[in-house]
Structures are given as C-alpha cells and as structure tokens.
Design goal:
Elements lengths: L13 H14 L4 E2 H10 L11 E8 L4 E8 L2 E4 L7 E5 L5 E7 L2 E7 L4 E6 L4 H18 L9 H5 L7 E2 L2 H9 L34 E8 L2 E8 L2 H6 L3 E5 L9 E6 L2 E7 L19 E8 L3 E8 L20 E3 L22 E10 L2 E5 L4
Helix pairs in contact: 1-3, 1-5
Length: 375
C-alpha cells in the first residue's frame, strides 16, 4: 500500500488548537475535513460512502498496551490502523455512553465510557482536545432531542438539526478558521426563474467559451423518496381513501431540497417546485379538479463534496415527480480529476429510519395550489 505522511495533518500549535476549540464551542459546528478523505482516496483506502471525516490525528496510543495508530472519526464511529494496514472501526457511536478528558504530564488522555471502558492518549500534542470539543457539541444536540435521557449519539437527530458543517480543504484553512481569518468566497449566482433563463446557463455564451475553472463546494441534501396519490376531495384524505398513481424514478437517490455552500457560505438554496419547468413525467392537467397528495420521506442530511463549473445556474437538470439528482454545472467527488454528474444512491446506516410528511395540492387550471388540512 502506498505510504502517506499523515503527520502533516496534525496541528502542533497549542494556541491554534485552543482557538479551534473555542470557536467550535461558540458556533456549535461539525467540521468536515475533506483533505483527510482525499488522502484516504489517494491511498485507495475505503471510506464509508458519503460519510465524511470530522476528526483526524496521526499518532494516538490505544489501550493499556499503548499501540500506536491514527484516529479517524466520522458518523459511523472511530477508526484506527493499529489493528492492520487498512483503517478499522474499533468503536461505533452506539456503544459510547460518554467520554472524559484530562492531562497527565505532557499527555492528553481520553477515557471512553463503554461496556468495557478503555482509554487513548496523545503525547506531545493536544489534537484530542478538538475531538473532545466536537463530541460535547453533538452530545448536547443528541440529549436535547432524546426525551429518555439516552446519552448515546443518534446521528439522525444530529444531522436533522440546523447545525453548520463547514468544509475545510486543507489543514491550513482549518487553522485560519479557528483564528477567524478564513476569507469567504462569494459567487454571483442568479435564479434562472427571475430572467426566464432556459435552466442551463447564466449567460448566453456557447459552452465552449465557458471557463474551465472549478470551485469546490459542499452540496447539502437529504436523500428523498416521493410517492404521488390522488383523490376527489378532503373527505377522502381524512378517510385514507386515495389512490397511488406513481413514484419518482429517483427515489432513494434524488432530493427535492438542496443547499450549495462554498467556504460555509450558502450560494444557492433551492426547493424543486411541484410544476418545475424541467419536470419529466408529471402532467398536472390530467388531475384537473382533483387533489394531488405528495408523500415525502427522507433520510438524514448528507454533506457531499462537489465542484461547480463557472457560468451555470446549478439548478436541477431534470426532475421526476419532484426529485432531482443531476444539476447544471455541478459534479460530485472528492477529486476534481474523478467526478460524476449525478448523486449516488444512498445506502442508509444501520437502524436509520426515514422521516415522512405529506403535502396537499388542489389542481386548478393545470396548476398545483398548496393547501393545509383543517385541524
């Protein structure tokens, strides 16, 4: 296996670590360290699909035998290579009740409260302080959502909040963010509907004239499924007397709402309307005078690395029953040399459940009129 210098990703400046911890406490964010995922891609080490690295340090001592290895953390759990060459998960969030931190001489020690308690330590550095701060942030979110007081982290609940997940492309960006010196990039993105654009480009130039420059971003969305039902009136809804007329071809892959962020700044939030101009398979005129019911179920929020091509509007290229999975000028992947132009089918985590809600529309003159059921 190709060797990689992971030590270059460690933060050895104690004051920089303190600043990152302080800002993380203040803003309650989850950092996405895209440069770590890119390093693992280069090493051809498998990374959980769509699950990003939230913490990494290269040299931690594990357990009573103090076996050295790196520590990699994402929403599935804690990984290390001290058990072999490939990263192996040694603890999932389901088994973690709590963690505590203390300093011993020149060492940072974290005690994991699990069925079989154990500890890890870091010598001559304090990166584990960032892990502890990150953990306390998400534990607070989990406890706020859990009525029974279970301290274990439920990532469905964490990612279903409005918590920010800024993406950092280098360790230097991460350090600058802690210092409050990271400059945010601004992109002039227009809504195609404002000026009657064709949904393809912001300008009228030929595609061969567009800039080839790519801008790295985070594409936030929830993998969604949409089922369409119809009925005659509101009484049918209350009685559960409605007919299934179809489901989206993009179920489990596409999304109806997404947010594109560059350096943690949103440049486009878009919700696919029922009668989106690029809709492929929904003729509302066939439902004239009837009620359209959209049953919408979604998984937890995902944060995908993508690249934007300049000169596009980043709107859906097409949609099926309100779901889109390709977007004008957007390509997905952690490496600009290996990109795909569609979202991948989402694979739910173990015991992950979907949230479900309904939307109701009266079809009048071929147009959907949203309404709410009376309480």
């Amino acid at each position: 296996m190709k060797k990689f210098d992971f030590e270059k990703f460690d933060i050895n400046d104690s004051s920089a670590i303190e600043r990152i911890c302080n800002r993380m406490k203040k803003e309650k964010i989850i950092p996405f360290l895209s440069f770590i995922n890119e390093a693992f891609e280069e090493l051809q080490v498998e990374i959980e699909k769509l699950h990003h690295c939230y913490f990494f340090t290269s040299n931690v001592l594990f357990g009573p035998k103090e076996i050295p290895g790196y520590l990699y953390v994402n929403m599935d759990g804690f990984y290390t290579d001290c058990l072999g060459e490939d990263k192996k998960i040694f603890l999932s969030w389901d088994y973690l009740n709590d963690m505590n931190i203390h300093e011993e001489n020149n060492e940072i020690v974290i005690d994991f409260s699990t069925e079989t308690p154990f500890k890890i330590k870091e010598v001559n550095s304090k990166n584990l302080k960032i892990l502890y701060t990150f953990y306390k942030n998400i534990r607070e979110l989990a406890l706020n959502r859990n009525d029974n007081g279970d301290p274990r982290i439920n990532w469905n609940w964490v990612l279903d909040t409005d918590i920010e997940t800024p993406m950092f492309s280098t360790v230097e960006e991460y350090i600058l963010w802690g210092k409050g010196e990271l400059l945010e990039m601004a992109i002039d993105v227009h809504n195609a509907n404002q000026n009657g654009f064709d949904g393809k480009t912001i300008n009228d130039s030929n595609s061969s004239d567009k800039s080839n420059s790519l801008i790295k971003c985070t594409f936030e969305y929830r993998p969604t499924s949409i089922y369409l039902h119809t009925c005659d009136d509101k009484n049918d809804i209350e009685d559960g007397n409605y007919e299934l007329i179809g489901e989206s071809d993009y179920n489990g892959t596409g999304t109806n709402i997404y947010d594109i962020k560059v350096n943690d700044k949103s440049i486009l939030k878009f919700e696919v309307p029922v009668d989106y101009i690029e809709e492929e398979d929904l003729d509302l005129s066939e439902l004239e005078g009837r009620i359209l019911i959209r049953e919408i179920s979604y998984w937890s929020k995902q944060y995908v690395t993508a690249f934007l091509q300049d000169g596009y509007d980043y709107l859906p290229g097409s949609s099926y029953y309100g779901l889109a999975f390709n977007f004008n000028g957007v390509a997905f992947g952690v490496d600009a040399e290996d990109l795909v132009d569609e979202l991948e089918e989402y694979v739910p985590r173990e015991r992950e459940t979907q949230e479900v809600y309904f939307e109701y529309y009266q079809i009048v003159d071929g147009k959907p009129i949203l309404f709410e059921l009376d309480e």
